[in-house]
Amino acid sequence: MSTNENASAAARLNRFKNKGKDTTEMRRRRIEVNVELRKAKKDDQMLKRRNVSTLPDDATSPLQENRSNQVLAHWTVEEIVKGVSSNNTELQLQATQAARKLLSREKQPPIDNIIRAGLIPKFVSFLGRADCSPIQFESAWALTNIASGTSEQTKAVVDGGAIPAFISLLASPHTHISEQAVWALGNIAGDGSTYRDLVIKFGAITPLLSLLAVPDLSSLASGYLRNVTWTLSNLCRNKNPAPPIEAIEQILPTLVRLLHHDDREVLADTCWALSYLTDGSNDRIEVVVKTGLVPQLVKLLGCSELPIMTPSLRAIGNIVTGTDEQTQIVIDSGALSVFPSLLSHHKNNIQKEAAWTMSNITAGRQDQIQRVVDHGLVPYLIGILRKGDFKSQKEAVWAVTNYTSGGTTEQIVYLVQAGVVEPLLNLLSAKDSKTVLVILDAISNIFLTAEKINETEKLCLMIEECGGLDKIEALQSHENEQVYKASSTLIEKYFSAEEEEDQNVVPESTADSYTFQIQGNTPDTFNF
Prior knowledge:
The chain has 528 residues and is mostly helical. It contains 30 helices and 2 strands.
């Protein structure tokens, strides 16, 4: 294993609370390991979207698609340039519409050819043609599709002065035009934090929010509401830097309102927005939590629909990387009762994120660990250790190790009783050095508890019987220096003298009444 990997394993250990260190250090942020956990896949939520629908019908667009316009289908880029540059409004409209059609085709739209032909400044100027709403609409649509492309293509639209022009169009009396402007701004903001902040700086938030300033959101067309919600979510997206805090505070009341709407796509994109806003420092998490939306988020976590459950779980998972108080709000909102189904979900990704969330709750206070125990979640974590996919197992390992770092003697005895030792030791054969180190840390923590209650020998026997000792011994020749040091320490400390001892010693119950073996019927003894 490389030095970098050693360092990153150590860094992740330090990102939890409770490791006998500063209590703010033990929770994990999305550095390195979690980059992979957090990558927003295209099918999770689209960064940019191209409008490839067929032409709107007369109800949504004043354009007519028949008569002489049929010849538009095969205009070349040169013909489009000529038409757009003419002084004839009708010809300009036909040329712009022809460009929009080229840019709306499913396969390989000629975006770069259109850009190279210098058409963007012309299209941007057409956005201001309030005297001719069809040309505003066609140019807005064409620019939306150019901005849906690569960063370079989006840059061409921005450099053409499109942002302020689109913001002005948000107030268009024609809904299909203002909706196209919403969509275009969403594509620009979705490109990354630089353009997101530029859209915000140009003043997009107030007019965007005013589009939703109606007494009843159900009075808006569902497609329109979905588009506005998606664009708002892109204004919340991306880090380094995160969106300005003032912008977030301005958007949040609307997100809270959208979180109570009944449209699935609106709910999904609102949850994505909240997952972005909670992906940061504790003060950023606090801005979201103090709106009081956590109970509704937990309610959505319990819905069975994957497109809503996925981002709501991510948001909840982000919140519990925060302070103990922020974590407590999640617990008090009833989130833990949803976790049996999440930790045993048929989708590996849900299991993994649920186990990751648990790892940050078990990094909390002992009373929070107790709530995990009381909700019967320990057997589910052990179930993942036994037969989850490896990414989920890694998160469950962290959950267990954090539990052993911060739990009481009684809680750790319960964990052993529940059968954690064998599946934990079985994972020592993993190729991933970080995971192996974290497991050795958990074993070491369990031994510390065993020492407190004079049950070390019983634990040694338990580890030996399930083949764990062989696995720990094998690690002494591991290529990773930290792994062989940690395994050697365990062997030297607990197993080196065993040949000289009587293997048949049965550990006795101690004054603490904790024991690995239930002695008689004493109600307060523990089977470690």
